[in-house]
Amino acid sequence: MRFAPLAVDALLVIVFCAIGRRSHDEAVLAGLVQTVWPFAIGLLIGWALAMAVARNTRFDATALWPSGILIWLGTLAGGMALRAVSGQGVAVSFVIVAAGVLALFLLGWRAAAGALRS
């Protein structure tokens, strides 16, 4: 149960990448790993950031703030940086769409979970 939020995040990053590949008529399964790996590493960076910020307090991976925001920013910035370094596209329009979709996915489930807890 402790790693369930990480599993949810990882699944949503994979879904984000699969949707992107499908929307550009690219083979979803054939190239999915190439599209996922930068964002997966970015996700781990975001998790590390969130855990580092919470090191003196109780880490809540389901919290929208600061965990969710840091995980989202780490996933986005890390993913885009790694895409750029590896020669994959980072057009401004893609960054904007990725920021929105990743926010919806990574922050959305946390917001919903928080609302259900209230």
What key phrases describe this protein's structure?
118 residues, 4 helices, 0% strand, globular, DUF3054, transmembrane
> Main beta sheet: strand number and arrangement?
none
**Helix- and strand-based class?**
mainly alpha
Number of domains: 1
Low-confidence stretches: none
Shape: globular
- Give the topology string: H per helix, E per strand: HHHH
Number of helices, counting only DSSP H or I runs of 4 residues or more = 4
Number of strands: 0
Strand content: under 5%
Mean pLDDT: 94
Share of residues in helices: over 70%
Radius of gyration: 14 Å
Q: What separation lies between the terminal Cα atoms?
A: 20 Å
Multimeric organization:
single chain
Provide a descriptive summary of the structure in words.
The chain crosses the membrane at residues 27-50, 62-82, 88-109. Pfam families: DUF3054. This is DUF3054 domain-containing protein. Keywords: Membrane, Transmembrane, Transmembrane helix. With 118 residues, the protein is mostly helical. The longest helix is centred in the middle third of the chain and has 26 residues, at 28-53. It starts with a helix and ends with a helix. The protein has one domain (4-115). The protein is built from 4 helices and no strands. It is 80% helix and 0% strand. The relative contact order is 0.15. The mean pLDDT is 94. Helix 1 (4-23) runs antiparallel to helix 4 (92-117).
